[in-house]
Amino acid sequence: MKLFTQSQYRQLLKNGDPILRGKDHFPVVKLFTPDANATWLLTEIDPYSPDMAFGLCDLGLGAPELDYINLFELTTLGGYLRLPVERDRWFMATHPISVYAQAARMA
What is the torsional sign of CA 15, 16, 21, 26? Predict the structure, then answer.
């Protein structure tokens, strides 16, 4: 499965435009490891470095953070059974990333 649909990829690039960078975007895509507790809610991709995405990174270790993630590295990750990272095809963001980050920190 691809990490993003074409429309998601276009929106991630649009959100990463330097003019829009730093805004409290809604997550565009949710990625997860099916055999571990890692989750990523991505809001943007840097158009000048398209292998870098920004969003909420929660590796399931009790320390979620807003940060950049290397997309190539993300494709090489796997959990206990070495299953690849997947896209949640049914995810629809209802809040900006700051709300998800605050909820993750509280949990």
Answer: positive
- Identify whether the C-beta of residue 40 lies closer than 8 Å to the C-beta of residue 58: yes
DSSP secondary structure string for all residues of 29-65: EEEE-TTSS-EEEEEEE-TTSTTEEEEEEE-SSS--E
- Answer yes or no: are the C-beta atoms of 43 and 26 closer than 8 Å: yes
Residues in the chain: 107
**Calpha distance 74→61 (Å, rounded):** 17
Calculate the average pLDDT of the chain. Answer: 91
Q: Yes or no: say if 26 and 93 are a contact pair by the CB < 8 Å rule.
A: yes
pTM across the whole model: 0.92
Residue 3 has which token pair? Answer: 């990490």
CB atoms within 10 A of CB 39: 20
Tokens of 64: 């979620």
